[in-house]
């Protein structure tokens, strides 16, 4: 095989992996934000109601 063709294939594979990781990280960022908001609401509810569970 031609060396240039091998280099192009390797670059294409690396770019595909990086693109997939970018999409996965964006999805995980949204999940983390949603979980953080839920945790904040639960914390505020606990503070407002005055529950002191250990």
Automatic annotation (TrEMBL):
Source domain of life: Bacteria
Keyword terms of this UniProt record: Membrane, Transmembrane, Transmembrane helix
Transmembrane annotation, as ranges: 26-48
Protein name as catalogued: DUF2207 domain-containing protein
Organism classification: Bacteria, Bacillati, Actinomycetota, Actinomycetes, Micrococcales
């Amino acid at each position: 095989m031609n060396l240039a063709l091998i280099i192009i294939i390797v670059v294409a594979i690396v770019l595909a992996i990086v693109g997939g990781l970018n999409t996965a990280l964006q999805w995980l960022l949204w999940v983390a934000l949603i979980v953080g908001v839920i945790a904040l609401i639960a914390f505020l509810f606990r503070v407002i109601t005055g529950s002191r569970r250990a």
